[in-house]
């Protein structure tokens, strides 16, 4: 009988080419979005001026002006989201090191979205403690919670609630805290949940949006070495939980 030998297979991949391609793609998106931004801003300016001097009684004129403005604003949203996503991706390998008070940031976000929630007849319920220290980037965390709370309002139920609280679920890793944004709106089908953070993936096409918001959220959280969990019951509501490394309370906030 032959002796049994143990073999180990070692595979080495040279990723230089892949990194170069990723950089090229990223540069192209940044340049293209930047170039589109200037003429778009000018176009929106022209349309707004036209709207001011337009004859309100001329229904056709008003209709086409409104359509033009709506589409130009939509395009501007796309360009800004693409630039944002690109910026976040480029920073992803450098995690933030500052300690921030997440409660304060979320309070600012809630205040900025109050008008929108009132228009949708949705109450935002804040159940956060006064201080919630995490290791994070202030501006990016603001963006994460704007996107999540805006979605909770947009896909929430008229007359319903959006609750922001510290999650009671077990943390995916020790030393993490989770903030849950919960709505009681339309919910998401089980098969769509894993794909929500893909770029341009949208389920409800009836509402305005770019399909980039959750992709931005995912990349920011990944830069923070955090975790995003999504739970939902179609017709009942959804809960998006952002898990982040906790900051020590003895350290000073930025
Ligand atoms: P959008 O600009 O379309 O809102 P997002 O990336 O923010 O893009 O979200 C992707 C899709 O996920 C949305 O089009 C919507 O179908 C779904 N979605 C996001 N948040 C919620 C929510 N709170 N409830 C139900 N569906 C949601």
Topology:
Blueprint lengths: L15 H38 L5 H33 L7 E3 H18 L3 E5 L5 E3 L2 H17 L6 E6 L9 E8 L29 H11 L3 E7 L3 E9 L9
Parallel strand pairs: 2-4
Antiparallel strand pairs: 1-3, 4-5, 5-7, 6-7
The chain binds adenosine-5'-diphosphate.
Structural commentary:
The chain is α+β, with helices and mostly antiparallel strands and 254 residues long. The protein has five helices and seven strands, in the order H-H-E-H-E-E-H-E-E-H-E-E. A five-stranded mixed β-sheet has the order 2-4-5-7-6. The model has no long low-confidence stretch (mean pLDDT 93). The structure holds adenosine-5'-diphosphate. Residues 147, 151-152, 155, 183, 185-188, 196, 201-204, 209-215, 238 line the site of adenosine-5'-diphosphate.
Notable features of this structure?
254 residues, alpha+beta, five-stranded mixed β-sheet, two-stranded antiparallel ribbon, 7 strands, 46% helix, 16% strand, binds adenosine-5'-diphosphate
SS strand fraction = 15-25%
What general outline do the C-alpha atoms trace? globular
Average pLDDT metric: 93
Radius of gyration, CA atoms, in whole angstroms: 22 Å
Spatial strand arrangement across the major sheet: 2-4-5-7-6
Strand elements, count: 7
Helix content: 40-55%
Q: Which consecutive residue ranges, at least 5 long each, have pLDDT under 50?
A: none
User: SSE order, as H and E?
Assistant: HHEHEEHEEHEE
Largest sheet: 5 strands, mixed
Broad structural category:
alpha+beta
Cα end-to-end separation: 70 Å
Count the DSSP helices.
5
Unique ligands: adenosine-5'-diphosphate
